[in-house]
Design goal:
Structural class of chain B: alpha/beta
Largest sheet of chain A: 4 strands, mixed
Strand content of chain B: 5-15%
Strand order of the largest sheet of chain B: 7-6-5-4-3-2-1-8-9
Strand order of the largest sheet of chain A: 3-4-5-7
Largest sheet of chain B: 9 strands, mixed
Oligomer: heterodimer
Bound molecules: iron/sulfur cluster
Number of helices of chain A: 13
Order of helices and strands of chain B: EHEHEHEHHEHEHEHEEEEHHHHHH
Radius of gyration of chain A: 23 Å
Helix content of chain B: 40-55%
């Protein structure tokens, strides 16, 4: 008996979930017999299928919406059509990375300002401009206000809860809690009030808020305390998109920071200085964001939202 | 975040593979419990998982009731949220506790190794007699209250020949969630590997038959391996994050990175990462976490590296004394299991078996399955 590595292992001949769900209406084709006899299950299943699983499936569903709309005549494809269509998340870049005391390959972040410049420049070329910035979406909270916890933490900070002396650190921690429990509404980075369409870029500063948003599709998430902050921008992007789509009032496209990691990507070129690494990685990241925007513009034109 | 509370190191059974030492068996006091809840609730106020663990936690039933009550008070006062689980050997499981569990939503998991020959070979009472009959009674009672309860089976070299028979038995008894763990610290030899392979092949055929027959079940070794391919990147989330997503609290309030490190709650303090009264020792916690993220040299170049169970630091430490060094048996086990599971999954996929497709590809499968069961 011994440890023995395997040099080669063939890729199993069954799809990964992402590939599988990208096929059109695939889950609806394979329903267990016992389920098909159960009207409640079939109803829930159809609702789930209509709700969509991921960007690709959603894009297909959106295609269907488009065909129906077209059948009804061009006049229905007016300003309001943006409400019926909802762009998928355009995936370029894994959006994964971590920062903190034990991370050796930090990602390079794209600032809000840089992102706006890239997004608006490409959109402008396609005839889409945004007349409003930081446009508040009144009924989409990225953070629910929690009165009860605010009260608890304020009391504790003021020494009413426990008879103990608070250290500076305790106070700082409590202040942070109090701040976290205040409500905060989503603000779209850009919004075109004429056609009623906006965009939002998820940056590292906004990540925590979006990540902790409640989406009905979410399973219970474990809350993790760590000195390392981990990012999954793509997942957060998908979540925000789902929330906006469900809300329905503010059709918008969501972009995310692609997060290229400094070492991961340049691992081979070990002799590069950090400044050079940062530069090359930053460029790579910006190109990935640009690719997200270009995909969106394709989608925007394909769906006749530009009115041509 | 999850907190496994070792409410007592004592037990009313004497299993041959138990890692809770016989001497110095300490217990958690009301005060330590209260401090633990304070600590846990502040760390993750919105979702605190409390797992009652032992020894045998039901020996401290009053403390468990007190804990649940305290959590209720904290919930009412501060809005904190809790969910509870308990892992028991079933000897003290009765209607009264199960009613309490129902009211307070305490999920009960039962340790049960399967058929009599397998179970009684290792799991005996204080007098040295097998506990199969009593555990079976407890299982039937539990399933009456919690039809979706999990059963935890431990596989040993001496009883590995009953693996398939035991899984089939537990499934027929009514368990749908079968969590099977190897006793990696057992004295495994080459002769056992042959039997293990044979048993996994029988289990593969059973898995295939049951899936085609649209039976609903979760059999952990197969489901996890299939998920490791199907979920791709996401599967990494299941990997060990020692001392970050869950921690163990010893009877005296000492915090440990995982269950195996607690032992009697006294003698293994080198591995403590803090105390509920004073909080985490950040340096030690990070040191252990960092060690847990290392990969065994042998695994580094292995084609199975990402899918393999090589990252469980707790298991590695228990068997080799190092966080990242896997045991020979773990490696052999993985190399036996992967090809068998993948072949089964490939076949079920090729046949587009509806239950396989829904179970593994439909993100809403748990919800649909629950509706199916309850109507
Ligand atoms: S029931 Fe659990 S704690 Fe008790 S002796 Fe057996 S393995 Fe150990
Ligand atoms: S199969 Fe063995 S060598 Fe390969 S990753 Fe697993 S434990 Fe490591």
């Amino acid at each position: 008996m011994k440890r023995k590595r395997i040099k080669y292992y063939k890729v199993p001949l069954y799809n990964a979930q992402k590939e599988f769900l990208a096929k059109k209406d695939v889950l609806g084709k394979y329903i267990p017999v016992s389920w098909s006899k159960n009207s409640v299950i079939t109803a829930v299943l159809s609702a789930i299928l209509i709700g969509g699983y991921g960007s690709k499936l959603d894009a297909q569903l959106n295609d269907n919406v488009k065909k129906e709309d077209l059948k009804e005549g061009k006049k229905q494809l007016d300003q309001n059509k943006a409400v019926n269509l909802f762009p998928p998340l355009f995936e370029h870049g894994e959006g994964k990375g971590a920062i903190g005391c034990i991370v050796t390959a930090p990602p390079v972040f794209i600032s809000e300002a840089d992102a706006r410049e890239i997004i608006e420049e490409e959109c402008r070329k396609a005839g889409l401009t945004f007349d409003k910035h930081d446009f508040e979406v009144k009924d989409v909270a990225v953070r629910e206000r929690n009165e009860r916890l605010i009260e608890v933490y304020v009391n504790e900070k003021e020494g009413k809860e426990k008879n103990k002396k608070l250290t500076e650190e305790d106070k700082k921690r409590l202040e942070w809690y109090i701040e976290r429990m205040q409500g905060k509404m989503l603000k779209l980075d850009g919004y075109n009030s004429k056609i009623g369409f906006g965009y939002e870029f998820i940056s590292n500063e906004e990540y925590n808020d979006v990540d902790s948003m409640r989406d009905e599709n979410d399973k219970l998430d474990l809350v993790e305390m760590s000195t390392v902050t981990e990012f999954n921008m793509k997942k957060a992007g998908q979540k925000l998109r789902n929330v906006l789509r469900k809300n329905g009032k503010f059709p918008s496209v969501v972009f995310y920071d692609p997060l290229v990691n400094m070492l991961d990507d340049l691992g081979v070129k070990k002799d590069l200085s950090w400044a050079d690494r940062r530069k090359i990685t930053g460029e790579k990241s910006r190109n990935l964001l640009r690719a997200q925007v270009l995909d969106f513009i394709d989608w925007y034109k394909t769906n006749n939202l530009d009115g041509k | 975040m999850h907190f496994t509370l070792h409410v007592t190191a004592d037990c009313n059974m004497r299993c041959s593979y138990c890692y809770s030492p016989l001497k110095n068996r300490s217990e958690m006091s009301d005060e330590t419990l209260s401090n633990t809840l304070d600590f846990a609730s502040t760390l993750s106020p919105e979702n605190t998982g409390i797992i009652f663990f032992g020894g045998e936690p039901l020996l401290k039933r009053k403390l468990i009731e007190y804990a649940v009550d305290e959590c209720k008070k904290r919930k009412d006062k501060h809005g904190y949220n809790y969910h509870f689980k308990i892992t028991t050997n079933g000897m003290l499981l009765d209607d009264c506790f199960l009613e309490f569990a129902e009211v307070n939503r305490v999920i009960v998991a039962l340790s049960f190794d399967g058929v009599k020959n397998a179970h009684d070979a290792c799991r005996s009472d204080l007098a040295g007699s097998g506990t199969f009959e009593k555990t079976k009674e407890a299982a039937i009672l539990l399933l009456k209250y919690q039809p979706f309860a999990s059963v935890l089976m431990t596989l040993n070299p001496e009883t590995i020949e009953y693996y398939f028979e035991s899984v089939e038995f537990l499934h027929k008894l009514g368990f749908r969630y079968i969590i099977a763990s190897m006793n990696y610290a057992g004295s495994w030899q080459d002769k056992h590997l042959k039997v293990l392979k044979r048993e996994y092949k029988k289990l593969a055929a059973w898995y295939e038959r049951s899936t085609i027959a649209e039976k609903k079940f979760y059999f952990s070794p197969f489901e996890m391996k299939i998920a490791s391919h199907i979920k791709g990147e996401e599967y990494k989330c299941f990997r060990c994050a020692l001392g970050k997503k869950q921690v163990s609290i010893g009877p005296d309030g000492t915090i440990y990175p995982c269950v195996q490190f607690v032992k009697d709650g006294i003698s293994n303090k080198d591995y403590s990462i803090g105390h509920v009264k004073t909080g985490f020792d950040g340096n030690k916690r990070n040191k252990f976490y960092k060690l847990s993220q290392k990969t065994d040299d042998e695994c580094e170049k292995c084609a199975l590296k990402v899918r393999c169970n090589n990252s469980c630091s707790c298991l590695n430490w228990q068997t080799t004394g190092k966080f990242h060094k896997v045991s020979d048996f773990l490696c052999e086990h993985e190399r036996i299991l992967f090809p068998i599971v993948d072949k089964t999954a490939e076949k079920l996929y090729r046949l587009k078996t509806p239950m396989f497709i829904q179970k593994h590809y439909n993100p809403e499968y748990p919800l649909l399955s629950l509706i199916d069961e309850s109507l």
